[in-house]
Give the backbone structure.
Amino acid sequence: MTLRAAATLALASLAPPAPALAEGARLDLACTYLKSCDQAGACSGFSGPVTLSLAPVTIDPSGTGDWRFSPEGATALPARGLSHTGPWTWQPGDGHLHTFVLTGEDSALWIRQWLPTERYPETYAEIDILTCEISG
């Protein structure tokens, strides 16, 4: 079984992969936005592609540990993951907290929270609903 096939199987079942596949299980995702919603649940149609890479740095066999998150080929940001399907969390700065989680074999949620700062005095969030497939 190839690493790509193993990653696809793991995502399909939403179960952690076998320990032998845990280290080095980089995920390259080709996603499409379906909707964008606010924290109150009001959604609008939003479409467009986005590519994402999640690369393990130091993880245990279940995928818990340090990862690197790269949206659209940008500089990788340090992230913390709880499993091979997420959630992954990171803070790109300016009071933002991001969470990304695979929710099925071809779906994901990306949550962006703005925490209280001088620039953004009130907390609010945006939730993007995406379809994704493993690429590369």
Remarks:
- The chain is about 10% helix and 55% strand.
- Residues 27-134 form one domain.
